[in-house]
Design a protein that fits this description.
With 396 residues, this protein is an alpha/beta fold. The protein contains 15 helices and 15 strands. The strands form 3 sheets. A 7-stranded parallel beta sheet has the order 3-2-1-4-5-6-7, with helices on both faces. A 6-stranded parallel beta sheet has the order 12-9-8-13-14-15, with helices on both faces. A two-stranded antiparallel ribbon has the order 10-11. Strand 4, helix 5 and strand 5 form a beta-alpha-beta unit. The mean pLDDT is 92.
Length: 396
Amino acid sequence: MRKKIVFYMHAGSGNHGCEAIVNTLCHMLRTEVVVVTNSKKEDEKYSVNGLCELIQERKFSEHRLAHVLYYIYRKITKDKESFILYRYHEVFGKKRSPLAISIGGDNYCYDMMLNDLFLSNAAFNRAGTATMLVGCSIEPELLKRREISEDIAQYKLIIARESITYKALINHYKDMDNAPDIRCYPDPAFTLKEKRLPLPEGFVENKTIGINISPLVMDCEKKDGIILSSYKRLIEHVIRTTDLQIALIPHVVWDRNNDRIPIEELYREFKDTGRVIKIEDGTCEELKGFIARCRMFIGARTHATIAAYSSCVPTLVVGYSVKAKGIAKDLFGTYDNYVIPVQQLESEDALIDAFQWMADYEEDIRKHLKEIIPGIVQEALRTGDEIEKIWNSVRV
């Protein structure tokens, strides 16, 4: 059987950032890819369908007897990795690939993801499969945790997507024997192609402000309700002080974490003005096609803002972690004014002030993006070259 590179820790294309990573990496690679996915059904609906082989993870929630049997086996043998061997069964054994790539982005920033990351990395390595961590962002403080530090050291190669993570990794592992190789290239999604669908009524190209809001960012707020009220104040400000339209654009549509829920609340409040529309769900390429035709963009989802940046649209990020700061810093030399941290959002007018700064410097920002984005795209493509190098070294 012809061996393929394995992608794992893929949560499904209902998160269009996850979809964009798989989409762009598949387009970069000459080698065939198999994606072990949390939701094959989602992936078949969106743009990754046909780009790679899709394998559905096995889920204990759907196989209760297997869960009981594996639990007993694990208690007897102390083999913690047995759950991963069950979950990813189709890429172990005779179908084992020489290379498996964790594509989870900022997964290490979420405690609920750590156990799966540790066990997956260990299981692949024990089976003789080399592992890579691609397109990652990691809060520097997390590297002080021994279990995270030791796990990350098992990867053959790590590619950080921004310099804050990269510098933290380099500094942490610089004096360590057998440290992983570490590179820094922009997020693969900077290379995503756009697909332009007809614009809906009310969306005027280059005269529309794109807005994205997410429940995840709302969960990070320090003052209850401040995010949604700040967005409402911003929309009121745009309607009152400009002649621009507003398009509300989702980028994650999972039932458990759905941008369309806060978007619907914003839309209901302002739809009668005739100035606010909502964009329906689509593939990552289709959503980028709408974002690319915006005048400016305010976004909470990382890959919605990457779609804007890479389309040379002046962008304000409502961020909550190192990834937002690191990406902005690499593009502009600073994240000040380009990222408004959710945790520091205490005044309902803070988002208006940040938007107004961007509007004042709109043309300078657009000019700067037009100058640097072609180079950023070329740098992002080097991730594919690095993967192919590792593949060629381990597949023989």
